[in-house]
Structure formats: C-alpha cells, structure tokens
Amino acid sequence: MSEERKKRLMRLYFKTLAITLAICIALMGVGYGVFAYMVGGLNRSDINEENLSANEGLKGVTNIALYGVDSRNNDYTGRSDAIMICSINAETGKIKLVSIARDTYVSVPGHYDTRINHAYSYGGPELAIQTLNENFGMDVTDYVTVNFESLADIIDEMGGVMVDVTEEERYQVNAYLQRGEPLRETGMVNLTGAQAVSYSRIRKIDSDSMRASRQREVLAALFDKALEINPLNYPSYVRKFAPMVETSLSNDEILKMATVALKNPTLEQAAFPNDYIYSEGQTIGGAWYYVYDLEQATDMLHQYIYEDIPFEQYGLTEEEVAALQEEE
C-alpha cells in the first residue's frame, strides 16, 4: 500500500471517528434536554449543606429525606407528618424506606427536645435534615417533599393504589376524607388518591407506628404501580408530577438515581420504633412522645443501610441468624 493511500485512509478514519463522536454527543445532548424538560416543573429549593451536620457516608449509597407535610393548600410548609429516609444502593439496585415516627422524642438543633416532626415547621427542610443527621448519625444532604394534597393527585394519576383495608380503617378513612367518594369496601381495595391519603393519616385506632406503616404501605403500592407502567410513558408521568414536588436534588443527581430504577429495583421497608428496640410512650411536659435509645437506633439503621442487616437480625450471632432463616 502506497504512502499516499495510507494517509487517505488515516484521514478517513479520523473523519469517521469525529462524525461518530459528534453524533453521540448530539444524541446525549438531546436526551439530556428531554430529561431536563421532563423535570423542569419541579419546585427547587437550595439548602446550605454546611448547616446539615451530615456524617460520613458510604460510597454507592445515597440517602435522601422524604417528607409528607400536613399542608393541603399546595405549599410545602407545616409539620412533617410523614418522615422517611430513602436509601438507594446503586450497586445492588435496592431501595430502602425507613420511617421515623413523627412523635419520636429528639433534640432539635437550636430549639429543644420535642417531636421530630416539629423540626420541619421550625426551620423547613434544612433544619429537618439537620435533626435527622444529628439524632441518627446520617449523611443526608438532599430531600423531597410532597404535601398531602399533591400526593392524592399523584395517586389518582396512577389510577389509585391497592391496599388491604379493615372495617375499622374504612370507617376512619371516611371520617377524615377531604373529598371524593367514601370508601365502601374492605379487604384489598383500589383506593383513590383522597382515600389513600386519609388512610395514611389514620392513627386513632392504634398508634403512630401503625400510621407510619400505612404510609409505607401506600408508597409501596405506588412503587408497584410505577413498575407496571410502560417505560415509554415515564416522561409524561414525570412531567405531570414534577410541579407537585419540592426538592433540593439537581438534575444530574436525579438522573444518576434514575439509572437505579432501570436495574429492576427491589423495595424494602423498616421503621422506628420497632419490635427489636425497646421503646415506650412517655408524657413529657404534657405532651406524648415515643422514647427509645437513639444510639441503638443509629447503630441499627447504619447496619441496615450499609451492611444490609435487617432489624430482626440485629445483634444476633451467625448461628442465631441461621436458625431464624430456617424458621422462615
């Protein structure tokens, strides 16, 4: 092969490579532009990470604070009636939801010892996250907040959620239903958005921990519903739901977490208090609280999130764990 022919082939190679790269970059740019359009309606809120008291975390695991506030007028203020830590493991594809009972007795930085749900009303998501980090040794730096009115709209858009409802719960749902048709059935029922929100707020018939359990049940049902959706329809849903959510997450952070959803993720749930840590209700200063050992809770939480040790296996020997698994 002549020297001139070699030069022509080399020029053609680099030209083809340059065009291919340009096309790839253009496609990525278009793709990112579509994604940015989809999440463009999100209510964004900046928080100062220096004020969050975030602890050292583990690479590959992202922890986000989820809040459901008791506002029903399309704003994001008020007490956080639902408090959860959402842990996303990029390597395993596991998503873990851990509820913190709203009546949990904690120290709110700059204030005093009180219910953990007061932190949000005192200082918004920034103080609420700082309270989580300082009391549970967490590394949370971002949050997502939905008010209950918006949650009802999201559930309606998804076609409702399937939840197992008792007769006692059905009565409570209807007693506090804000709008729409009353619930007339029990058992596995497809709840409307308003019914699901009313269901997730029930606590008079049992306890605040059961209330948190109902909230997780609704979110788990919503998660299952999302997995049933044709992926081609995700963009329209995301665009529709974005204005109903407030968050500190950037587009890049959301996109990074969205890739986990493509790995056929699994959802696991846990809560504080639970059957594996001693807790009691105490009346302090005329108010009722859940009181439990926060140092032990922190240790349990970290083992659950970072070492994948379920609460029921906390503190057990290998032999005890093996025996427990055999029983299951």
CATH architecture of the largest domain: 2-Layer Sandwich
Structurally, the number of domains stands at 2
Order of secondary-structure elements? HEEEEEEHEHEHEHHHEHEEEHH
Instruction: Tell me the helix content.
Output: 40-55%
Estimate the global geometry from the Cα principal axes. globular
Largest sheet: 7 strands, mixed
Q: pLDDT under 50 segments (min length 5)?
A: 12-35
Q: Gap between N and C termini, in Å?
A: 72 Å
Work out the radius of gyration: 24 Å
Per DSSP E runs of 2 or more residues, the count of β-strands stands at: 13
CATH topology of the largest domain: Nucleotidyltransferase, domain 5
- Beta-strand level of the residues, as a percent range? 15-25%
For the record, the CATH class of the largest domain is: Alpha Beta
In terms of topology, how is this protein built?
Layout: H1 3-38, E1 43-44, E2 61-69, E3 80-89, E4 94-100, E5 105-107, E6 113-115, H2 118-136, E7 143-147, H3 148-157, E8 161-165, H4 167-175, E9 187-191, H5 193-200, H6 208-228, H7 234-241, E10 246-247, H8 251-261, E11 266-272, E12 279-284, E13 287-292, H9 294-306, H10 318-327
Parallel strand pairs: 1-10, 2-7, 4-11
Antiparallel strand pairs: 2-3, 3-4, 5-6, 7-10, 8-9, 12-13
Helix pairs in contact: 1-7, 3-5, 4-5, 5-6
